[in-house]
Hints:
By secondary structure, the protein is α+β, with helices and mostly antiparallel strands. It has helices at about 1-10, 15-20, 45, 60, 70-85, 100-115, 120, 175-195, 200-210, 280-285, 340-350; strands at about 55, 90-95, 135, 150-160, 160-165, 215-220, 235, 245, 255-260, 260-265, 275, 295, 305-310, 320, 335-340.
Amino acid sequence: xxxxxxxxxxxxxxxxxxxxxxxxxxxxxxxxxxxxxxxxxxxxxxxxxxxxxxxxxxxxxxxxxxxxxxxxxxxxxxxxxxxxxxxxxxxxxxxxxxxxxxxxxxxxxxxxxxxxxxxxxxxxxxxxxxxxxxxxxxxxxxxxxxxxxxxxxxxxxxxxxxxxxxxxxxxxxxxxxxxxxxxxxxxxxxxxxxxxxxxxxxxxxxxxxxxxxxxxxxxxxxxxxxxxxxxxxxxxxxxxxxxxxxxxxxxxxxxxxxxxxxxxxxxxxxxxxxxxxxxxxxxxxxxxxxxxxxxxxxxxxxxxxxxxxxxxxxxxxxxxxxxxxxxxxxxxxxxxxxxxxxxxxxxxxxxxxxxxxxxxxxx
Length: 363
Ligand code: OGA
Ligand code: NI
């Protein structure tokens, strides 16, 4: 059988390639242990109306000068703060200033990339988290006991070191570049607003909050799965950077853990972004805002494609709770941690821990 021969040769084979070859059952390498499997009968699935994820309308944040007065802006920032606190910083964002056409152009171009023959895609193969451009499968296929049901095309920008967006495959280069430009502008605005929602003023934010020039984009492709009850597209984790802006696809799959329950995310419409706060924001806010655990379940008949953009500080930045958010009654819960050390620990230890790797920075 093709699958077995390929694994024996030690060639890493992506999940799309396996599915395209014809799969009628989930290969053992992809079967999750029972406690990790999806739970489509939970209350959040049967009564989704009770679990409404906040939708944040950013119109007032985007054009501060216009007819949207100061009070409307203040109101949006308050809403953002509430969404962050109640939902561990998770929002669906509409009216965000990135053209739907830009999103659609990238989705179509990425679709073309994933439709190319496997050999063509594999020209970009790399499982390293530091490659400027990489096409990978699962998280760490050589070490993990169970693989994730996804392949990912990723682009890394380390400011001053490399820019993967400049080296993207020709088939999607222009589209990747216009997309990241728009989403990066949105990330900058949202990031500031998130700290404003904590009552910090602009000057303090400029001086004390690390900027987020480090960018990673991962375009995840989840092929249809013969038995979604056994697999996960992406296992439970929290993101390592500061902020993640995700374009989730209309095909559902993303779930967030809210008060102990896995809640499915249904995008409001095709232009919606999903924003989640990641580990460095939890550290900076001394735990007031939490990075949220999330995962992706698979789908029985439709492929799903998501575009995740992670924004973080310079690698050498030392991240610690902001001085103004700690005092005697609220002592620091995290130690100053270099972002580079944090991400390296994540890359080597994610397989060992469910809850990301925040323990690495915890006091
Ligand atoms: C991720 C992620 C969610 C999705 O790439 O870290 O959580 O819907 N993606 O693909
Ligand atoms: Ni994630």
